[in-house]
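2024-03-11 09:14:02 DEBUG pipeline.ingest accepted 1 chain
2024-03-11 09:14:02 DEBUG pipeline.ingest length=682
2024-03-11 09:14:03 DEBUG pipeline.predict start
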Amino acid sequence: MRILDKMNGESLLIHGSVVETHHCSVLVIGSGAAGLAAALRLWQAGVHDVVLMSEDRCAGTSRNTGSDKQTYYKLTLSGDVPDSVGHMAETLFNGGGMDGELARIEAALSAACFQWLCDLGVPFPRNRYGEAVGYKTDHDPLSRASSAGPLTSRMMVESLEKALAETAVALLDQRQAVTLLTEPLEHRVLGALALDLPGNRTSRCSLPRYTLVLASFIVLAVGGPAMVYSDRVYPGSQLGGTGLALSAGALAVNLTEWQYGLASLMPRWNVSGSYQQVLPRYISTDETGSDTRDFLAEWIPDRRRRLSLVFRKGYQWPFDSRKLDGSSLIDLLVYRETVLLNRRVFLDFRSNDIGQAVTPQDMDEETAQYLIRSGATAELPWQRLRQMNDPAYAFYLSHGVDLANEPLEIHLCAQHHNGGLAVDTNWQSQVNGLYAVGEVSGTHGVYRPGGSALNSGQVGAWRAAEHIRHCLQNPSDSQVASRRPCQPATHSASVMKQLHDLLLPANPNVTEEPGQLERKWLAAAQQMSRFAGPFRDIGRLPELLRAIEQDLEEYGQNLPAKSSDEAALAWRLRDLLLTQRFLVLAMLDYVNHGGTSRGSALYLEDGGILPLPGLPDYFRFRHDGLPLTDQIQSLQLTHAGQITGQIAIQWKPVRPVPHPDESFEQVWRAWRGQNANSAESR
């Protein structure tokens, strides 16, 4: 990669803001595993006029997150148990809310994407016969999961970066993408406007400066909209940018679907897998750290069952509305302690459950046998963790937390957005030339197998790159011509109008109190976690929506900022509020369609049932209704560019998994025709 330090366009002065312009064929926004894969795939496909834009190349989820052994989900490549593309596609599809052709594509390309990463240097393990061994993850009927350790996605990023260093793909760093420019009549993308950020984030800039990148194609790889929640395990550097596409008129799907789970607060990290399977002690305290209680024992007095549920919380890590009488009861009880009672909850690896020794006789057979097979039979949980998965112990140690000497504070947090932008089989959105790959893409269904998101990002990046390559090399293709954007011009009427509307001058008569934007951001995120997180209060959702829309009216229309720092916050708050509005509207519409608790969310309502006798009425949830997993909900802003405009919501049945029955000769003939031009160009 080369640093793009010189624009190939001109400088514009719009309402006092300097805008430097650049032209390219393809702009990739986001430097995580999906964005880097898209850039590298484009280069390998012969598309070399590519710019990679990043807010901070060292930030984001891929580089800064993981778990006990972060999972990559793929077709089975070891053992003697039968598997197939069709079987894996059905597993993905059966999670609900996912079109079958996307499930089949993700299954079909999983092995090739996995091997590509191996070839790039990601150290996925193999046995002495060369098999890529696997294990079973959540919502996985087989053992398709693989892992390179707690930092698998970071290793993916580092390997992709190393490969990109050998290319001339241009890097445009320290740029915060703030809006997408479109041609409304043709519903196509024109480019992206980005705020220039200071290299030193502690410094203060004078007037905001912007970079406008005009491109025929944009690959959006900004990750999930982490900033909408205050309780989240996403790294602090992951904020998202779903609102960029929403305000451009892109269609979104399944926005109600998130994944929530238990996570440590400092550092932010999923406490899944081994962290649970070594049977740590769950305790709660008051705000000062006093009044220690074994709260799980109060609600689950049968110790054998209690230990079994803790163990299962390892491979059933996401909160699941179907497991309220099982492992997800733990999530619910943690939420009660932390949110309803305002207490603190810790995993204590220094002592066993209720402070008493744990023997095989205290466990069910599955738990006891797993610990024995893993060689994790030491006296204390931290010792068992080192025996079972020493890198998981070492991770916390590297962040200044010694699990042998101190407890680990946890919370129920947002971890992954399963919904997102609607895409076709090439991962192209409804806006021509705009592709969405990675978590920002809504291809993950309701109950996704653990690790399938990493695979989905790689598959989507490959499909998008191949389609862009095909469009560029086959301009006369009638199917391509109907959707292929042309190279936008800097001074086109559409571009200039949008810039003039966006970059309004600061009003000297309006003064923001110091810290007002930060306080509004925090308040909006807190109320979202409280009323529209894993526990969604049906009665409070309309009130929440009104509050969001009021804030959006006040903060989301004009963004007059006197400095770069103020502008960065203002643009972020706009994106946050717009995305929250879509999310809460989707939840209300889901409820109004008779939707019941599903996935990682419980819809609370008066008159509902309690998950466990004796719990407060707060947890009464809707149970009579439809999970609607055989349908997909889609939302779209009907007036692109007007973020407070009407949002249209529709439902459609999921398309089934295709089962092609084609002869080799048929496929080969079509393949030769599709690839003739690209072969000649090489």
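2024-03-11 09:14:41 DEBUG pipeline.report DSSP finds 21 helices and 22 strands in the chain.
2024-03-11 09:14:41 DEBUG pipeline.predict end
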